[in-house]
Amino acid sequence: MSQTPTHALPSYLNAEDLGPWGNYLQQVDRVTPYLGSLSRWVETLKRPKRSLIVDVPIELDNGTIAHFEGYRVQHNVSRGPGKGGVRFHQDVTLSEVMALAAWMSVKNAAVNLPYGGAKGGIRVDPRKLSASELERMTRRYTSEIGVIIGPSKDIPAPDVNTNAQTMAWMMDTYSMNEGATATGVVTGKPIALGGSLGRVEATGRGVFVVACEAARDRNIDVDGARVVVQGFGNVGGTAARLFHEAGAKVMAAQDHTGTVHNPAGLDVHKLLSHVSQTGGVGGFSGGQALDKNEFWTLETEFLIPAALESQITVDNAAKVRAKIVVEGANGPTTPEADDILAENGVYVVPDVLANAGGVTVSYFEWVQDFSSFFWSEEEINQRLERLMREAYASVAQVSREHKVTLRTAAFIVACTRILQARQVRGLYP
Fold it and tell me: How much is the pLDDT for 312?
């Protein structure tokens, strides 16, 4: 494993434990030998352009004052404005947000969207706040990061524990501070505020589309194939439904509430209804409870990790018995685990390609907001599927040419595009 020079590490990180950012740096090191003359610019990829840490004080419903730590990181904006979600989670760290921002740079370039990469978050357990407290926190956070976001600077979107309502509050707050309605400052908004049809299901639909492309490459028939899904929200739930409707057998589902398994196939529509009513897959009567660690050992054609990062690690990678892993989540596989999967012949469709459907339809929303002309959901889905297929094809071609994994190929494609933009723009002043 290559070592990252200490001069490449931001001084505000712990060099002994870089967390998710360390995983990203390893991925950059692996792709550097394929960048040719552009490798002289590779340090650009190892340093976020801008990292903002903000205090988010709010008055709670009981009259006391609470403080939360918020972040907005712009990793790279050489190809266009920053783009990336905002997550509310008790485990959010600067290292995590930096890595997620960097993966957004790679993802947007891999799909050839005119964006750079950014990400935001607040370290908070949103389940412990009331709706009014969440609104006050969201608005204060938006005001604090307002100096660096904007329709042509950096465009947030929903992520873990944020949704269309969160984006509506962010858009309204930014607009009030600007003195004019700015619908394009965020994406993933409600339809009534310039949101796009098809946005909610876009990431899961993209996962399904590239999974079908990968299945064709691996001579696997989706009809009748076995599928297991970790995370059953917008991404995992949508992907599972589309697999189910295509004739696949969704055998197991896992989330923070438990794991359910039915070798004959779960009734996905009933499971989605159960999740909507109870908040998770745990307790679903249409399957048997399964130990969370056994989930990874199930023999299956498709494994869809669509929860949080670092789920497939050195501890469980060797036990994975899937033919194809399609990463619905961001960074669900550590670099060491990636090597184990490759050695065992598991075909991994990486996150920066597999889950790019969400940001692709966010791009469509941004374009529609600028033009004030909106497309039908059918048009959006057709455009999404075409872009995802084209992106998969270009990455798969590079994979074959260089005899590397799809992840390394996606990084080759993306990093080349980012550094070409950096090189021709030059340094100012």
Answer: 95
